[in-house]
Design a protein that fits this description.
- There is one protein chain.
- The protein is mainly beta.
- 8% of the residues lie in helices and 53% in strands.
- The chain contains one helix and ten strands, in the order αββββββββββ.
- The chain has one helix at residues 4-21, and strands at 37-54, 65-69, 71-84, 87-91, 94-104, 118-135, 142-155, 176-189, 194-204, 223-237.
- Strands 1, 2, 3, 4, 5, 6, 7, 8, 9 and 10 form a ten-stranded antiparallel β-sheet that branches.
- The model has no long low-confidence stretch (mean pLDDT 87).
């Protein structure tokens, strides 16, 4: 499961920044939002998990798979198009990296070697989201917003074309995938630039698992769906 501490930390950070920023009386960058197009970049942290649903007809009724996520990072560029005073369309191409350990607990019934029940998946993605950003009117130097959109993801670490599968200790994931994401954030207008922290949820649409050649594989046969779900804590500079 995704760490609740990661989500709580992000929410606490956003609310703290908003509280201290609204005390500022000097209005910075008063014409910033009047431009049609502007650019920026972002840095951030992520923690990705897998959502798993089981195939009840797999012949492995005791299937039990859990995921241990770890924190990763993301970095990218921003191109922002103003559609309306409260609506922007954003393209945010970047790189996202993370790793996870997958535990196939039921495999202890198939092998005496405990290493056979663990797979480590390290991934580096080209993450290309197309995002709609809905903002409130500006108050002093802050402007809260919500966002939502869809992204294309190319997994550089994918081994989808590998002929080896879990019988040779190779857990395979698809190269191409699509995700949707939703989130909240705050624009903070500073003297020279706009700083925008946000917290987002990211969810894969198609399943990402590549099935083993053996249709009765105890690794992949029990899985009906396995897709990324994650939390991003992003800091944008525009």
């Amino acid at each position: 499961m995704m760490s609740k501490k990661f989500i709580i930390f992000g929410f606490f950070l956003l609310t703290s920044i908003a509280f201290f920023s609204q005390k500022e009386k000097v209005e910075y960058l008063p014409t910033f939002d009047k431009g049609q197009i502007h650019y920026g970049f972002y840095l951030g942290l992520n923690q990705n998990d897998f959502k798993i649903s089981y195939n009840n007809n797999s012949g492995i009724p005791d299937a039990n798979i859990t995921v241990e996520p770890s924190a990763g990072f993301n970095v990218g560029l921003i191109a922002d198009l103003r559609l309306h005073k409260n609506l922007n369309l954003r393209l945010e191409p970047g790189l996202m990296t993370n790793s996870k350990k997958i535990y196939f607990h039921h495999l202890k019934n198939y092998s005496s070697n405990p290493l056979d029940s663990v797979r480590e998946v390290s991934s580096t993605y080209l993450h290309v989201p197309l995002i709609f950003k809905f903002s409130t009117d500006r108050y002093n130097n802050i402007r809260p917003y919500v966002l939502g959109g869809i992204s294309y993801n190319y997994n550089f670490s994918s081994n989808e074309a590998n002929q080896d599968d879990n019988s040779a200790s190779q857990f395979r994931m698809k190269t191409h995938n699509f995700m949707y994401e939703v989130g909240v954030g705050i624009d903070i207008y500073l003297y020279y630039f706009k700083f925008s922290p946000s917290i987002r949820g990211v969810f894969a649409l198609p399943s990402e698992i590549v099935y083993d050649k053996d249709s009765n594989s105890p690794y992949t046969a029990p899985v009906n769906y396995m897709g990324t779900r994650g939390v991003f804590l992003t800091f944008a500079f525009e």
